[in-house]
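Researcher: Re-running this chain for the archive, since the previous output was lost when a drive failed. Same request as before.
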Amino acid sequence: MREIADEAGVSLSTVSLALRGDRRVRPELQCRIRAIADELGYRPDPAFSELAATRWRHRRSMRGLVLALILHRQTNRLPSPQQGFIEPLRNTVTARGYNLDVFDMEEYRSASRLQKVLCNRGIRGLILPAIPTLTHLEALDLDFDKFTTVSMGVGRTVTPFHTIGHNIFRNTRRVIEEAWQRGYDRIGVAPFSHTPLAREDAYRIGSALYLREVLGADATIPVLTSPRREDDLLEWFHTHQPQAVITHTAKAYWLLKEQGIQIPEKTGFAALNIAHTSSISGSIVEIQVVADAAVDFVLAQIRQNAWGIPLHRQVIQVDGVWNEGSTLPWRIEQPRPLPEIIEG
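Model: Regenerated structure tokens:
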């Protein structure tokens, strides 16, 4: 096709359109391009031609596509994890050339009313943030056979849809391993838990218990799994005197500092979920990366003409990124090797 384009003095795309008989190419130019193609002995590849046509049909059918983010308000407020997804999702959808509409379930009398609005607007793709409770999932009584749906994040309830979220188990493991390699013994993990227990709690606690078994009792102290009460954290700290404390967020850092705990001079600290600009060591949760993966996944499902609840649910987990910070300094000059069982 390059030779045809050079001979005709046109672009490759014009040659492609002309050989397909596209009306956007003038009839006389089409005839000239076809004559050159015949002279050069050009024969189109049927498989390639079908692939190109399929891509063009999808591009036309998805032009002006609108995706919907369905939110679930709790006690008259929007949970911060859900609110934090809006801007990253909008960034990704806009970058892909589409539009994002945000819907709050509390603003509609019923799921059927919301569904009518979605259908009237021609919305095909739905993105659901982590579902807070089973009650919220039951309230989302849409006819999902009319939509292509993915979930974001890990909530207290597992949805039947393809899900994109953070790899909570691996992120927890990464932070504990980092403290071990830097020379800390008596590593204290306080992931806390929700009431009732959330699925994300199980991943954090499970990872901490696994590494306690692998590293040995001398390397770690009992995992603090109680609900998020300040008194429990302080009692646990004073009882076990950990060399390093690892918690879910940076909130515990400020609590310990207020109690006169010298961080990092005597006690190291790391968090499992921190922001890019934090001076605290730990794992950065990349919400934008999760948003990118969720949007790309739902767009791919739409292109594949997938509808409704999938027969085989797929889960994509995104690893966190280590933030050096200043609260978990090295206690040894060279990294301490990890036990062989947890390599890889």
